């Protein structure tokens, strides 16, 4: 089941963080960079986030989530997280499908991911995202900007 998450509530923010840390550790290993900013998040940082969070729950357990916000009329995905214990169950695909159908509201959609994170890059391409740019926000990490036009 997919639903909006109330990330300003302490318990929900703690659930998000408990899911986010192990997932981003896997990505850090994939891309060879352990300085991913979301690895340093705290419950308070999640509670104060201006992102909208949608979660995938199975039997009440949060197994994955996607967060996004509007940036200059574009829906920008900030986090797409699946707990490593639930990899390869189609959760990320279901979250993206839901987001594109129910939340992006006909806007262009953008997302960044690690250039070495082939599983994420391939997933976004499966949904029609195109790689637009590669950039290095800091030494040791390359990111890819992907975009899906509404047209």
Automatic annotation (TrEMBL):
Cited InterPro entries: Acyl_CoA_acyltransferase, GNAT_dom
PROSITE patterns assigned to the protein according to its UniProt record, in alphabetical order: GNAT
Q: Provide the coiled-coil residue spans.
A: none
Asked if the keyword Transferase belongs to this entry, the reply reads: yes
> Which Pfam families has this protein been placed in?
Acetyltransf_1
Report the residue ranges that make up the N-acetyltransferase domain in this protein.
Answer: 3-151
Transferase found in the keyword field: yes
> Mind listing the UniProt keywords for this protein, alphabetically?
Transferase
Output the superkingdom of the source species: Bacteria
- What terms describe the molecular function in GO for this protein? acyltransferase activity, transferring groups other than amino-acyl groups
What's the protein called, per UniProt?
Answer: Acetyltransferase (GNAT) domain-containing protein
Q: What is this organism's lineage? A: Bacteria, Bacillati, Bacillota, Bacilli, Bacillales
